Amino acid sequence: MGGIDVIVNAFTRVSVEGVGIMGAFDEARAKVEPVLGPDSPLVRVRGIALMGAVTVVRKPMPGEGRKRGFKLPGAGPHGQLD
């Protein structure tokens, strides 16, 4: 009967695999655009949320602020590096 927020930055890949029973298990709308490359770390969130919630949120790093559309040099249209 509680909630867990998993917070990741723009450079992290996320895999959410779970089910919410009388609760939620999902990835929330990103606060910043993902900037993913071939060396981006992967965070796997798996499990069951029973009468609670597990939510993954993509937020900027401390001190960065909200930078929508920020891309690394050489990044493609969706933030992936070539």
What can you tell me about this protein's structure?
The chain is an all-beta fold and 82 residues long. It has strands at residues 3-8, 13-21, 24-27, 42-50, 53-58. The radius of gyration is 14 Å and the shape is globular. The termini are far apart.
Quickly describe the structure.
The chain is an all-beta fold.
Give me the number of helical elements: 0
How many strands appear in the DSSP assignment? 5
- What structural category characterises the helix and strand content? mainly beta
Low-confidence stretches: none
The radius of gyration is 14 Å
* Shape type: globular
Quote the distance from N terminus to C terminus. 44 Å
Order of helices and strands: EEEEE
Main sheet summary: 3 strands, parallel
Q: Strand order, main sheet: write it out.
A: 1-5-3
Helical percentage: under 10%
Topology:
Elements: E1 3-8, E2 13-21, E3 24-27, E4 42-50, E5 53-58
Parallel strand pairs: 1-5, 2-4, 3-5
